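Lesson 9: reading folded outputs for more than one chain in a single document. The general rule is that every protein is listed as its sequence immediately followed by its structure tokens, and records are never interleaved. Here is the first one.
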Amino acid sequence: MTLTFEDFTQGRFGSFGPRHVSREEIIAFAAEFDPQPMHLDEDAARESMLRGLSGSGWHLCSLTMRMLFDGFINRTASLGSPGVNEVRWLSPLRPGDDLMLDVDVVEARVSNSRPETGIVTFKCTVRNKAGDALCEMVSPIIVKRRDANNKAG
């Protein structure tokens, strides 16, 4: 079943995961996209304010997107996103973390300019196995309405 705008009501939408993160993938991501010492080198990372090897915040955002896609976006009538409203990195992503993603709908409104669509704004919180919040993200997506042909006119 394809999820449409009407399937997203304010409140908790769901939790997704776990997603295990290995030391090797933290280093591989950093080597290609964010080659700062605290993401690549354990000795340098210990000397950093993070006090140990940690994944890039951009890696965590990429993992969040994958968990969103696997969790529900792959079966949603999504037309894309106009961007991310807010991203906050709260605690380091560590090798061996098992991530869980909590998703809440903070707003769902019909588009004024395209009434055949709605804009659903999600707040996503990524937590490690201990329950520590690592990242919060607030982002809207544009979603087709269930009976889009009748809504436009």
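And here is the second record, again sequence then tokens.
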Amino acid sequence: MQGVLSGFAVIAVVIVVGYLIGVRGHLGEQGREVLTKLAFHVASPALLFTTLAAADLSVIFSSRLLVTALSTAAVAGVFVAVAVVRRWGVGRSTIGALCASYVNAGNLGIPIAVYVLGDASLVAPVLLFQLIGVTPIAMTILDLTEGGGAKRPLWQVLLTPLRNPIAVGSLAGVAVSATGVRVPGPVLDPLVLIGNMSVPAVLLAFGISLRGSTLPLRGADRAPVLLAVSLKSFAQPLLAWALAAAVFGLKGAALLDVVVTSALPAAQNLFTYASRYRVGEVLARESILLSTMLSVPVLVVVAALLG
């Protein structure tokens, strides 16, 4: 359980530091917005590029990833279906669907994979799937709905992913990995250094956002938050277990792998996306906070039952 506790402890400390920065006002009134823009436009694209440029893309073609993809699509689809009925709006529904299905495979998934699963590379398929498949699609939807969903020419719609720095960083990294191009050290090293700012910037911005915020589940976003957290914390790992065991016949370490990765909480960078597009910010913040808290006992139970 050391991996579960240490991973959460690191995240909690940085969020608390961000909260204290917000309380003391060290970064001024625009501190959170500056950190969010830094992460979205600069640091996160650099991190995604350097991560994917050195990745083995062959790991995405496996039964484990198929389980993850199916469970992700299922819980996201449930949220979207409810959102359509409740008329929560496209942008808000997109953020909610991400909070219900997009796991924290980076800064939390890696330490947990090391200490619980014994191999950090086991989160690579999930990380690649989210970066290559989920993120560009979600960013394109948010870009197209920004500004009230005004109609645009077809060529602008097709080029939407190329206007988003997150998608561009991901796709560029995939292109480098697929072609086998070696990025020179003088080019790669600054990108690695800049990319290292991404996770702390996201966590600090998240902590600052907690200043003056109400307790979770008190506002107008109570229903979508409850739905997103329930799907993320309970439905997704249960569905992953059912698919892995009953459909794909996974057992032992392979079964533990897919269930643990599916039980990870919603990723903190989802709050960055919500803040950037100014939609579903409360939904993202509360869903991330609650799913992170719930994932501790859920991961302990999963490790005890399947480990």
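What the second record shows: DSSP finds 14 helices and no strands in the chain.
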